[in-house]
Design a protein that fits this description.
Layout lengths: L1 H13 L4 H4 L6 H8 L7 H11 L3 H5 L4 H16 L3 H15 L6 H20 L1 H5 L6 H14 L3 H17 L3 H12 L8 H20 L3 H18 L2 H17 L3 H18 L2 H19 L2 H15 L7 H21 L3 H10 L11 H8 L1 H11 L3 H15 L6 H14 L2
Helix pairs in contact: 1-3, 6-7, 6-8, 7-8, 8-10, 10-11, 11-12, 11-13, 12-13, 13-14, 14-15, 15-16, 16-17, 17-18, 17-19, 18-19, 19-20, 19-22, 20-22, 22-23, 22-24, 23-24
Length: 426
């Protein structure tokens, strides 16, 4: 516990205080000198007196890593985690693990444990070799440690967010009932929803629950769940999530072969974006329209017109980072390639697919978003089939079916199965 003495000396020096300044009738100058040099350990009472003299919380005297260092390292780790690419996540793990080995306490330590757990899961999904190189690589252990720390700090919404992460993992694995159980355990803790963060995470979890119910074939209950959460979002004005919930409801109706009901929600999505006048959400809505017109409505010419229009608008985007603009353009081109595939223009489609590889960043995407992006491989398989490359077509078609096998009740999975059947029957 020599770090206690080191912390006292560091804080005292930073405040330009002498040992005499810190000493009082409860702790002598000699005792403080012994403590600072690691020759003796102070009692709780003496630590309280020293903390009072230094005008700091007692926690700052016993922390294993100075809080300023924790804050700096945490910010660096968050910035790295937000970067695109596996190498940045590997750096996050390497940056955080030496700190976590010291078993720090406090808010920053909780965030580090949470972030480290997310980094481990990301590496498990996209880079198993790097994941296996990490000795302590059980993301659940670190996530649950974060939950315990947030509990101690009475930060309920962060506790629930950690549970949401674990529920997402179970859903991605196809363990839908386990995901529902975690969500119900988490949301039961939200007795007071008086903050934006709390209401936001509640909506995310209940939306995931609806997805899980739908994936279990309990579609009526899933619809009821979505209706409840849409009403909650309306009442609490969670605008971005409200749009996504409307869209999710429309897609469920399309899956139920009830396009008339689906179109009502799509129309509400459109009106919502017009009222909100948010450029990002408007662009997202138009991308969704390309997908809906191509995949659900079968109006390929209309889908192509929307895609071409979006291409022109992309050239005039100015207020977003170039990385965001590039991703938007790639996703639009990917959707256009799907439409061209439907129109039998396989040469053009294949060029677009090859030039616009959309990164599947599963750590930032929900199960439905992952599914819609993976689906491009089925279209690409059709292109290779018509180009005479049977082996490549089958490889891509099987990949898509394998990635979507946890969504057996979705139209995405059925489409992927149809493509695979068509490929192998040739």
């Amino acid at each position: 516990m020599t770090h206690v003495g080191e912390n006292i000396k560091r804080i005292r020096t930073a405040k330009k205080m002498t040992i005499t300044d810190v000493a009082n009738e409860h702790v002598s100058r000699g005792m403080i000198s012994l403590i600072e040099n690691g020759k003796t350990q102070p009692s709780i009472e003496r630590l309280q007196h020293i903390a009072r003299q230094l005008n700091v919380d007692i926690a700052e005297l016993v922390e294993t890593v100075p809080r300023e260092d924790m804050q700096r390292i945490l910010k660096e780790a968050i910035d790295l985690f937000d970067e695109v690419g596996n190498e940045s996540v590997v750096k996050v793990a390497a940056l955080l693990k030496p700190i976590l080995n010291k078993d720090p306490a406090g808010y920053e330590a909780a965030r580090m444990n949470e972030l480290y757990g997310r980094a481990l899961y990301h590496l498990y999904i996209v880079d198993i070799e790097q994941y296996n190189n990490i000795e302590e690589n059980n993301w659940e252990v670190f996530t649950k440690k974060a939950i315990g720390m947030y509990n101690d700090l009475q930060m309920e919404w962060r506790v629930v967010r950690c549970y949401g992460f674990l529920a997402d993992i179970e859903a991605n694995r196809g363990n839908y009932q386990a995901a529902i159980d975690i969500i119900e355990q988490a949301t039961s803790r939200l007795t007071v929803m008086d903050s934006l963060e709390t209401r936001s995470i509640y909506i995310q979890l209940q939306s995931l629950k609806a997805f899980a119910l739908d994936s279990l074939g309990q579609r009526e209950i899933a619809h009821e769940q979505l209706d409840e959460i849409i009403e909650f979002a309306r009442e609490n004005i969670i605008l971005g999530q409200y749009y996504h919930l409307l869209n999710a409801k429309a897609w469920r109706y399309y899956d139920d072969q009830k396009p008339e009901k689906a179109r009502k929600y799509i129309e509400e999505c459109y009106l919502f974006t017009k009222i909100l006048k948010n450029e990002s959400m408007t662009l997202q809505h138009e991308m969704n329209q390309i997908f809906i017109q191509e995949f659900f409505e079968g109006d390929y010419e209309k889908a192509l017109d929307i895609a071409k229009g979006l291409e022109g608008r992309a050239e005039n985007i100015r207020d977003y980072p170039q990385e965001t603009i590039n991703e938007f353009i790639m996703m639009t081109n990917d959707l256009e390639a799907r439409v061209l595939t439907r129109l039998g223009r396989y040469d053009e489609a294949l060029i677009l697919f090859e030039e616009n590889r959309v990164e599947l960043n599963e750590r930032n995407l929900g199960p439905t978003d992952v599914a819609t992006r993976v689906l491009s491989k089925s279209y690409e398989a059709l292109c290779y089939l018509h180009m005479g490359d049977q082996e490549k077509a089958e490889e891509l078609a099987r990949y898509t079916v394998d990635k979507l096998h946890n969504l057996p009740h979705s139209s995405f999975y059925h489409f992927a199965r149809e493509v695979l059947t068509k490929v192998v029957s040739k």
